[in-house]
């Protein structure tokens, strides 16, 4: 006999009947009845939650449209369950840090130092490092200047502000030349706008490292130079202070009009104030058709426009005619001003004289271990509480509030594993010794003020006592016209690095990227640059069982990889300033050259 409860339930799950039908519902299967009756005696009394769930299910079946809200109901139930569940946490398990997430390079150096000192390798690494060529083909500079005549009338004047450091400004200048040439506009000599991080003039701390190759008793001690700060107050650098302005204008004469100022009759409309000129806020990496469709009509209407800021405001995937303007500006028209060029060539000459035993060949290293770079990387470098406090203060000075926003989590270990930590002077020394460069190698160090230089630079000097800097190669009087200006000092470093046999980049950025492209342009398409795999190095330097011979094998493999990647062709989205082939260079077959 079917109980009253079962009868009620069967009525609840029945589909609605037509009002006029009298057909009885089919009887429940006997097997189902037996199963229900058999189990009914074993079930405990239903709880309120069970009854409520059953009633809710009945309503949903009766009102099938409500099923649309089923996902929402499910999520609500899950949240209710999680809220009422027990919050008793299991004991925290302290796992060993992932290999490569902790800075242990000093321990590795202490363990390997005896083997490094005993390794008297005489192989001439600096002369045998570059072996590769690109499929039997070399490249030669091939920037075609226009032999025609510019149109009689310009479409108007374009004024841009080049922001950032030396090479970010260089990007802006080259892109401005390309835009002006593309729009048949007249380019006004760019104005330099300085960011707080790249301020110029700068408050700069220099360091000097004693070396047996240089004798200059007039120079103060290392500790003195590290504690001295140069005062600001000189005027900011202008275009002509860094680049040869007359040469720039002449080199572009047949391709792009370049003038010093906007004509007076136009400036009169704007009360002789360029800030009153219409300013375009161009999005980053804007395509060329944006300039044609949006900027050109306004240029024709106003006859003078301003674009600020202008860094990275032109896509690298541009037509060949635009790329030609870029090549012409970067590789031909932009030449350092005579004072910088002369002093830079003097430094190069001194480096070649010092490294005469290696055929005048030396290694240049772009070391990014300044305090602001260490702070921005959010990495930890065994400096203890003092380093922690220094980095907090540096981040607040340079990027007020950026690193203390709610929800911002700094993960030094993850940064190191991802290769985002700058290499320390110690790590650079270990890497170069592993690649076969011995103690007699002359190294030029291009850098700003090294963080905690007394402590961090000591191991590098032990491994390479012939290390040089611009402050060591030149007297204070020779550097006086440049030392208050970060861009001019960077230009000196750029010149010495450009002419080195080997260039080592340790952190990326505009400086090494431009250098790699410029070196490819000068050296037959090969960048002659060592680009370390920092992810791999992080794991190696965290290996407590690392042996010297094993480490050398890994470093020689990394060196070979840099050699093979020296020749690379530009892909559509790549920077033409890093990969000048094939837009700025032409193929030159080796066999053909030899035959002629």
Kindly state the number of beta strands: 13
Structural category is alpha/beta
Mean pLDDT: 82
Percent helix: 40-55%
Shape: globular
Distance between the ends: 112 Å
Number of helices: 27
Q: For the report, how would you describe the main beta sheet?
A: 6 strands, parallel
What's the helix and strand layout?
Layout: H1 4-12, H2 30-40, H3 48-62, H4 70-84, H5 105-118, H6 125-128, E1 137-141, E2 157-163, H7 166-182, E3 186-188, E4 191-193, H8 222-227, H9 239-242, H10 245-251, E5 257-259, H11 264-267, E6 279-280, H12 288-302, E7 304-307, H13 320-333, H14 338-354, E8 363-366, H15 371-377, H16 384-398, H17 412-417, H18 425-434, E9 443-446, H19 453-456, H20 458-463, E10 467-468, H21 470-473, H22 476-479, H23 486-498, E11 502-505, H24 510-522, E12 529-530, H25 534-540, H26 548-564, E13 585-589, H27 590-595
Parallel strand pairs: 2-3, 2-4, 2-7, 3-5, 6-7, 8-9, 8-11, 9-10, 11-12
Antiparallel strand pairs: 1-13
Helix pairs in contact: 5-18, 7-13, 10-13, 14-23, 15-16, 18-26
Region (Disordered): 13-44
Keywords: Carbohydrate metabolism, Fucose metabolism, Glycosyltransferase, Transferase
Organism: Cardamine amara subsp. amara
